[in-house]
Amino acid sequence: MATPTLTKHTLPGSLGPILIDVRAAGRTSPQPAVLVIHGFKGFKDWGMFPPLAVRLARAGLSAISFNLSGSGVDDAGEFAFPEKFGHNTFSAELHDIEIVLDALLEGHLGVAPPSSVGLFGHSRGGGMAILCAAGNPKIGAIVTWSAISTVDRWPSQKALWRATGKLEIVNTRTGQVLPLYTDVLDDVERHGRAQLDIRGAAGRVRAPWLILHGAADPTVPVAEAEALRGEAKADLARLLIIPEAGHTMGAVHPFAGMTPQLAEAIDETMKWFGRNL
Asked: Beta partners for 141?
């Protein structure tokens, strides 16, 4: 196995800085790279993401993990910027991903421009990965875990949300209450049927795609994975349901070690990128 090094980078994003970690064992010659995209209330150092990134880098791939500019999280993993979290939108996240991808392809992240690029996304990050990959010839492979199939996540809460101007989101790990303003509702209403149509984008993905989901996911139902598989190109996509796995495959934050479900998910992810990048 190769020995990776870690470098840190910052790019200007939609709502502020995008904080980026690059783990790579080789930096001067082209090698495959994978963007690791976190989900709602997630961040680059949450639980399972660093072990996954290290595994990718040890296998000879550059692992590019980052905090989206609207994550609200600083480099220490704290929700230090609740207002950025509150004003975050799906469109802002998609723009941030494109910024990071362009910087990678142009050789501005401390590694040579990659020979091929993969996308990994978890939960909401999985939905964003699908939107980014749709019809994009730069993407050579995609893996999603627990991916959302629609950006319309709050149908029963919209009226009260509009009336009060914000929805209160509780970080169950810390007890911190985070505001979520109506920016994301506006974004969904303006772009949900076009630029943010995840199921429509699934049918335009031209890269080999592993759709991985936990059978016991209480946050994003397995039906959403099945819907994505139904839209995807039959010869490109594989649906893998992991028995007894939850939304994060048993991973917690701070990371408390590997679970059988997480180990299987990471192994299958490595195989997919290894075959297709």
From this structure: 118
How far, CA to CA in Å, does 207 sit from each of 8, 29, 72, 139, 190? 29, 24, 31, 6, 28
Q: How far apart are CA 8 and CA 21, in angstroms?
A: 5
Exposed / middle / buried, residue 223 (Cβ in 10 Å: 0-12, 13-18, 19+): exposed
> Residue 112 is part of which domain span?
5-152+193-276
pLDDT of residue 174: 85
Task: Give mean pLDDT, residues 3-25.
Answer: 97
Question: Is 160 domain-assigned?
Answer: no
**In this structure, is residue 180 part of a structural domain?**
no
**CA quadruple 122, 128, 133, 138: dihedral sign:** negative
Q: Residue 135 above 90 pLDDT?
A: no
User: Cα(20)–Cα(123) distance, rounded to whole angstroms?
Assistant: 19
Which CATH number does the domain housing residue 232 bear? 3.40.50.1820
Evaluate whether residue 142 is within a structural domain. Answer: yes
Q: Is the pLDDT assigned to residue 7 strictly greater than 70?
A: yes
Domains: count for the chain: 1
Residue 230 lies in a domain: yes
| Cα 154 to the center of its chain, rounded Å | 20
Tell me what the mean pLDDT of segment 177-198 comes to: 97
Taking the C-alpha atoms of residue 259 and residue 86, their distance in angstroms, rounded to an integer, is: 33
Q: For residue 1, name the pLDDT band (cuts at 50, 70, 90).
A: low
